[in-house]
Amino acid sequence: MMEVKENDMDFLEDLDLYNRAMENAYYIITGKKTLDDLLNDLGEGTADDIALPFDPMREDGKTTDVVEMLIDYYEQHEDYEKCAELTNIKTNASEYR
What we know:
single chain; mainly alpha
């Protein structure tokens, strides 16, 4: 059996945190969840932390950089339904900047 080193565990934890951040951002940007929903999940113990690739106190995540990062993320995971939904938001949302 192959031994898992501490650096490998750090990488896996970072990757898990990154994946959670992308999922949370998707939920917020698409309106499927709010920041309050994520905080409630944390308070109820159904989430360990709230990871986001943007500062929710300063922006809503619907910036060019964040939405395009999410589209790239979901393209890499071949989740084209989410890509289409994000592309639609990017194209049609009046608050998109």
